[in-house]
Amino acid sequence: MYWQPVLRSESGSFSNVESALELQLHSDIAEFYGRYYSGCLLFESKWGEGELIQPWNADDFDLLQQNIIGHLMMKRKLKQPLTWFIGVLGDGDIMLTVNNQTGVVAKEVPGEEQSEVLADSLEAFLEQLTVKVAPPNLPAEEVVAAVEHPGIFASFKRMWRNLTGR
């Protein structure tokens, strides 16, 4: 059985994030995350293989918003430009982020500023990717375990705990 992205009847909104953090999000973000429910989109590029994060369903969209709030709070605490993560490269230690002010897409290591600029816009970045076709996978259930390379979501959880003191 094949699963394909599903067009949402109503676009997802980040107005709650904008309101809570008193910011205006870059217009590319709502377009990128808000139109479809989808599994992660695998790609190949001149920077290596990676995946673009997409919300699987309404609950996953809520989780995405929570993770983005944690990421933005961390960026503010570190006094760094605000970025929105859209995916990962390789084994997940390098995020792909959109600068909220300029729309530039760049590599970013959690806790650091954007480093290598990959494209001037999200559209220009997406045009440079080649879709990678792979057998479908169910979304991974989170398992709390110590691993050598915890990946991006474990890093976000750790950052959130550090920010909130929990």
Automatic annotation (TrEMBL):
Which Gene3D superfamilies does this UniProt record tie to the protein?
Syd protein
**Superkingdom as given in the UniProt entry:** Bacteria
Any one of the GO CC terms: cytoplasmic side of plasma membrane
This protein's UniProt keywords? Cell inner membrane, Cell membrane, Membrane
Q: Name one Pfam family in it.
A: Syd
| Protein name (database record) | Protein Syd
Species name = Shewanella gelidii
Q: What is the lineage of its organism?
A: Bacteria, Pseudomonadati, Pseudomonadota, Gammaproteobacteria, Alteromonadales
